[in-house]
Automatic annotation (TrEMBL):
<dbReference type="GO" id="GO:0007009">
    <property type="term" value="P:plasma membrane organization"/>
</dbReference>
<keyword id="KW-0472">Membrane</keyword>
<feature type="domain" description="C2">
    <location>
        <begin position="38"/>
        <end position="167"/>
    </location>
</feature>
<dbReference type="GO" id="GO:0016020">
    <property type="term" value="C:membrane"/>
</dbReference>
<keyword id="KW-1133">Transmembrane helix</keyword>
<dbReference type="InterPro" id="IPR000008">
    <property type="entry name" value="C2_dom"/>
</dbReference>
<dbReference type="InterPro" id="IPR037721">
    <property type="entry name" value="Ferlin"/>
</dbReference>
<dbReference type="InterPro" id="IPR035892">
    <property type="entry name" value="C2_domain_sf"/>
</dbReference>
<feature type="transmembrane region" description="Helical">
    <location>
        <begin position="269"/>
        <end position="293"/>
    </location>
</feature>
<keyword id="KW-0677">Repeat</keyword>
<keyword id="KW-0812">Transmembrane</keyword>
<protein>
    <recommendedName>
        <fullName>C2 domain-containing protein</fullName>
    </recommendedName>
</protein>
Length: 314
């Protein structure tokens, strides 16, 4: 029979000592809870036995914004997201599954995916998390890590989903979340002149926060029977936007140039072109003025010479 208030579950390793070497080895996991009550106040009856339940975890990677760490020329990356899902059931069995999105090539500060992963898991579990890594795809060399991996914990969500299913309550629905990639190699980050030479700690911290990338994702945990009744496809949900295609290159050549050489290089080139245009225009105006002045002086000299000749003849 279930207790009126459910007790927190503790996990301990079962160890076996070797009689000859006196070394201990792990042989299992003990699940227990401890309850302290007055004498005679403890409820009688059977203790409820938890039954494992199959669940499906659905994760959708939507987009990443404010990417400020670049591994390729032109302040760009060929971005994809790698997910390493791991859970440990209450018997101590570990299950690991790795997934990845497709690659957003020539991504500058933003990358779009609209990509779904699904994972099967049994609850209750000792541990459950999803390790997310933003990667730069290279065809020749090894793939580079853009931002250092971050761990998205799911054990609490899984336990709540298990409790709701056990007690006949509705599932949690879709959790819309934003994760922040805030650890990176500082040598690879784009840094402005102000943040590079400013020595004020609070200002440098403020500039550092501007380089944090943010990823929009959805998480949903469903009992397996509900997941089977409402199946979904893994992979691309809908075509992502801002991907470089042939039609984009033809219809928006300036956009293609900005994607290939990078936004910062594109604007630097734009400003340099404007500066050169203004400089050439000023040189042309100066040359034209100089030419007009010389023409005026030449006609003035001819007029004075003619007048002097007429005076001499008289």
């Amino acid at each position: 029979r279930a207790q009126s208030q459910r007790m927190p579950i503790e996990y301990m390793d079962l160890m076996r000592a070797d009689g000859e070497t006196a070394t201990e080895s792990r042989v299992g996991v003990l699940r227990l809870w401890v309850d302290i009550t007055p004498i005679g106040d403890h409820s009688s009856g059977d203790i409820e036995v938890l039954k494992p339940q199959e669940f499906q975890v659905r994760v959708v990677i939507w987009r990443i914004t404010n990417i400020s760490v670049f591994k390729d020329f032109g302040d760009r990356n060929d971005v994809y997201v790698k997910g390493r899902f791991k859970y440990v059931d209450f018997w101590g069995k570990e299950v690991v599954k790795t997934e990845k999105t497709d690659t957003h090539k020539f991504a500058n500060s933003e990358a779009y995916f609209n990509w779904r992963w699904t994972f099967s898991v049994r609850a209750p579990a000792q541990d459950c998390f999803l390790e997310l890594t933003m990667m730069d795809e290279d065809r020749i060399s090894h793939h580079d890590t853009i931002y250092y991996p971050l761990v998205y914990p799911m054990d609490q969500l899984l336990n709540v989903a298990y409790s709701n299913h056990r007690d006949g309550r509705r599932n949690l629905g879709v959790l819309q979340d934003t994760v922040v990639f805030d650890q990176y190699d500082p040598d690879s980050a784009v840094e402005s002149c102000a943040s590079k030479y400013c020595r004020c700690c609070w200002r440098r911290a403020h500039f550092a926060e501007r380089r944090f990338a943010k990823m929009r994702m959805d998480v949903q945990i469903l009992p397996m029977e509900e997941a089977v009744a409402s199946p979904v496809e893994t992979g691309a949900i809908m075509p992502p936007k801002d991907r470089l295609t042939i039609s984009t290159a033809i219809s928006h050549p300036e956009r293609m140039l900005q994607i290939i050489i990078g936004s910062r290089n594109y604007w630097n080139l734009t400003y340099f072109s404007i500066f050169c245009f203004i400089l050439i225009l000023l040189l042309l105006i100066t040359a034209l003025g100089y030419f007009i002045i010389n023409i005026g002086n030449m006609f003035g000299s001819n007029g004075n010479g003619t007048q002097t000749a007429n005076t001499s003849s008289s």
